[in-house]
Design a protein that fits this description.
- This protein is an alpha/beta fold.
- The chain has one domain: Class I glutamine amidotransferase (GATase) domain (Rossmann fold).
- Helices cover 27% and strands 31% of the residues.
- Strands 2-1-3-4-12-11-10 form a seven-stranded mixed sheet.
- Strand 11 and strand 12 form a beta hairpin.
- It binds glutamine.
- Glutamine (GLN) binds next to helix 4.
């Protein structure tokens, strides 16, 4: 099987861990530092970090339109934590949403101080055995449109979802040795490539 090439937006945040995890699925992970590199990849991860900082850097390095164009080509995008904030159509605490690629409203830093960072066993749609998820100052999805598939919830809050070629998780899949969640994204990239090649 040909290897997939999956990029990780490398402006800020947990980049190296994602690259390692992509490589552990047998595919190629590359750090994306310039918009031109988007042409080389089959799918893109928007990592965790700080969404406001990431947005500033997206603007500074001219990524806003190229990222929207990448999505318009139906190429898969996986937003993790701050990345989930970036893909949302709406944010609960701000009128300035970022890439607006997914019909969800996201609440930032939403689990409160006691739960700044925690682990939880989740039942994830598509995974047979519960998945231990790592949350760090995590957001959650407060509202999801009808065309959004809910993949996991924690204490009745939506923490993973998919809409077509966009996948989002409130947790950090790259911080565990369990590659099953990132494998769901790799499968989406593989499927989309088949469709695009047809
Ligand atoms: N709270 C951060 C934000 O809203 C996300 C935290 C994270 O990515 N670990 O950008």
């Amino acid at each position: 099987m040909n290897k997939l090439v999956i990029g990780v937006l490398g402006l800020q945040g947990a980049v190296t861990e994602h690259i390692k995890q992509i490589e552990s699925t047998g595919n190629i992970g590359i750090t994306i530092k310039k918009p031109e590199q988007l042409a080389e990849i089959d799918g893109l991860v928007l990592p965790g970090g700080e969404s406001t900082t990431m947005r500033k850097l997206i603007d500074r390095y001219g990524f806003l339109d190229p990222l929207k164009q990448f999505s318009a080509q139906q190429k898969p995008i996986f937003g993790t934590c701050a990345g989930m904030v970036l893909v949302a159509n709406e944010l609960s605490d701000s009128s300035d949403a970022h890439l607006q690629l997914m019909d969800v409203r996201v609440k930032r830093n939403a689990f409160g101080r006691q739960k700044d960072s925690f682990e939880a066993e989740l039942d994830v749609k598509g995974l047979e055995i519960p998945y231990k998820a790592v949350f760090i100052r995590a957001p959650y999805i407060e509202y999801a449109g009808d065309n959004v598939e809910i993949l996991a919830s924690y204490e009745d809050r939506i923490v993973a979802a998919r809409q077509g070629h966009i996948l989002a998780s409130a947790f950090h899949p790259e911080l565990t040795n369990d590659v099953r969640f990132v494998q769901l994204f790799v499968n989406m990239v593989s499927e989309s490539k088949k469709v695009i090649l047809k």
